[in-house]
Records
---
Amino acid sequence: MSSPYILHGFNPSPYSVKMRAILRYRRIPFVWDAIGNPRDVAVAANLPPVIPILRFPDGRLMNDSTPLAYALEREHPGQRSIIPDDPVHAYLSDLLEDFGDEWVTKMMFHYRWYYAADRAFAQTWIITSRNPVMAEAERRAGMQAFNDRQVGRMALVGCTEQNRPVIEESYRFVLDTLDRHVRKIPFLFGSRPSLADFGLFGQLQILSVDPTPMAEMRERAADVYCWLLRLDDASGVEGEWLDPEAPLPDTLTALLHHCGETYLPFLAANTRALQEGRDEVGLDIKDRPYAQAPFRYQGKCHDALRKKLAALPADVRRRLDPVLEQTGCLRYLA
Ligand SMILES: N[C@@H](CCC(=O)N[C@@H](CS)C(=O)NCC(=O)O)C(=O)O
């Protein structure tokens, strides 16, 4: 057997468990290397210092889960692809993946570092993932240092007291809507999972473990909780995409509509602030004030979504634009 892929990541990292679930669903043999500090692998390879990092069988190292998912599509074409065949659904899947990666992540970060019970649990989870057995003093110091670093970053990613109602309300909306969806259709775009499912999975999987959002999820959206357990290893799933001619399920349009009234206005305001060199993004989201410093990476995400839309042929746009228009997304993407 040729040497398999190696995924360097760890369990408390949403993007790591997202990539792991993709590899499992796609039946791509890999080794899950969750020993030590996986971020060091990125630093040593001169990559952006984020996890996970995937080592390809030829030795190449790469990180950033979205380009990684697409690189795997190129390496293994036609083998349980996670990109819907229909280009309209494929674009909507990209959009919802980005919503998961860049907006739902605010919920993940907020719950994890805001509530005392969650902070305490996250410290233990992260420190023991790096090194399960440590001298007590070293363990305590490591936990405190990690806590302080992450709490210090909250404002940077928009997890502030002012933004808390927007973030928590959005979490509840996503739970309620996804709960209704997975009772009718196994995954977002059919009975097989798409890139969008994995984007949401990464963040929600962590939210299903950290104590405060876990309790909320189990009580409010038990089907979402069970959906996450299924998607973690979906290597046995054999499914079909939704019929592209049929109207989109109302739960999917509700999620897109939510994206059009939360994440996308934020993304557009973020891009404007970056272009104008301002140090604050401020806007109203569902009649509530939201503010944070501009985020360069999310400027790139916005640009990528717009370029992808602009590159689609006219016959695809004729079917896609009405969906984006009706859900309030188009004006932020065109
Ligand atoms: N866009 C990247 C984001 C990866 C990311 O932000 N990973 C986090 C952990 S889940 C990280 O490594 N943060 C840097 C740090 O904590 O030092 C992806 O999709 O993979």
---
Amino acid sequence: MDDFIKDEILSLKDEMIQIRRGFHQYPELGMEEKRTSENIARRLGELSLEVNTSIGRAGVVGLLKGKNPGKTVLLRADMDALPIHEKNNVPYRSRNEGIMHACGHDGHMAILLTVAKILTAHHEDFSGRIKFVFQPGEEGLAGARFMIEDGVLKDPQVDAVFALHLMTRFPIGFVALRAGPLMACMDAFTIKIKGKGAHGAMPEEGADAILMSAQVISTLQSLISKEVSPMIPLVVHVGTIHGGNAFNIVAEHVELKGTVRTHDEILRKSMSERIDRIVKGVTTALRGTYKLDYQFGYPPVFNDAAMTGLVKDVGVQVVGAEQVIEIPPVMISDDMAFFLREVSGCYFFVGAGSAEKGFDQPHHNARFDFDEDALVVGAEMMAHVALAYLKNH
Ligand SMILES: [Zn+2]
Ligand SMILES: [Zn+2]
């Protein structure tokens, strides 16, 4: 293992923390990362990297060339924040009211900029190329897909992709990963149910859309318990329900919005028909009609076995074998899936939680924050993963 990396990351730790806090103070929502991407482009430019901006709208790419030609490895960091009003009372608290880096993407950017700086200084020590990719709109807006459409995987053609996500549910010093399916798809549906309005005291003259929606919601759960094998993880979740106008009126309209999560591509493709069948059956039985709008969003995140093995080996050297853990799949989603569908690679977690220091809040929480020591682990991991890939391929 090249010891210079650890030393140099430690010498840049304070700077990395300042970069992270700078991003934290000025968070921007997905696909609107203007200030953020300008900041990144400037920093990459100062390293004399070949910089491309406006890839996938707000995306930024820095290309670093090693001593000799070789494979191209892509390292990705996401840039967007969330519509959350920060409740932390820290000096680097968000100054953009109502917007907050509550998922750790500020840390991902600081890590990747630091890795870019260190590997640029050592570009004579490796062959091949490294694409530093700063991606907009991870939180539901599929920024990765826009970057792919704008050619981020070409010219030069990318041979492997890697990214990390800081995670407070894993303690500081841990790396968590798995080969195969890691995260679920993120598909969405809207169900519009139509009944017939009437006086609440004379229900026989109407058709109650609220009753229909109640039956639809509970019958949808039978997909999980009675229709799909219990060995296949599946979430069918209704998150919003809107309908009805007054206590004494039979509701004519109800709208439900929900999401489907699974790692299984075959099951995934069948879910719109299954949901359609249930909604159709229930509403027809209760004298109503319906409209189902089903949207396929992020695919499942799938990690290549060999690339995951490479990350694991690096993890063993960086944090020690006891602190590299293989985890079961999770039901969250991430548009890193679009990259991993095109090119083999690995998405892994870096522990960022610390109960003693009070960093124990979940992601997307208004009090979310993470242990900045995780930045060092993350930077070490990313730098070594890139070098290990280029060395071995
Ligand atoms: Zn998030
Ligand atoms: Zn995230």
---
Amino acid sequence: MPDAVYVRDAFARIADRYVLTNHVLSCGADVWWRKSVSTRLRQWNPARVLDVASGTGDLALEIQRQCPDCEVTASDFCEEMLAHAARRGITKTLVADALHLPLLDSGFDAVTVAFGLRNMTDYPAALREMLRVLKPGGHLVILDFSLPHGLLRRPYRFYLHHVLPRLAGWLTGHRDTYEYLGGSIEAFPSGAAMIELLESCGFTEASATPLTGGVVSIYQGTRPQ
Ligand SMILES: C[S@@+](CC[C@H](N)C(=O)[O-])C[C@H]1O[C@@H](n2cnc3c(N)ncnc32)[C@H](O)[C@@H]1O
């Protein structure tokens, strides 16, 4: 499991180049991945959404665009990342550790977390905290990296461990942060393992949908009534 201080400091160092680097490394696909999450959310017409580990606010902004009547709160434990979210138009920001959210129970219709859960020190504790702040019947949507199956798996691993850190190092000046990325993706539960984890934390209707050949997946769970 990742070290929280290392993670927070690493994101603070790359905050200024984070958005551009994401677009370059994913060839722009990250925009579409976040749109897919927001489109799911729109069907539930949520009044209040919490975007955990919101960082520079890319997903929170997309949710605001697709659900204009919804109140979106962006939370993150890295002030440097969240400052970008605020500058880009997110009005409700909250500096907080996802493992100890300073929020009342059952306050949100939906909770989202994009590329964040993988970086947390205790996945079950983080998921139970997200369950706690969801209203009964509310939905959790997770977007994160996974490993593709089949022919794409080997070349993707080569890209992840050898090409991506060099490219990102060149773009951000912090190659070590992106060397950590590959290991964190390898260790992160995906597919059936993530469904099992969600269910063990109290979510129902858990599902997994791979996108872009399995390079990322969207996971969903519901807080029981
Ligand atoms: C890869 S970024 C993702 C940012 C954004 N969600 C996106 O889609 O681009 C991961 C974010 O998770 C945050 N993070 C990691 N562990 C956290 C924790 N325990 N509590 C709050 N934020 C955390 C980091 O500070 C960072 O901003």
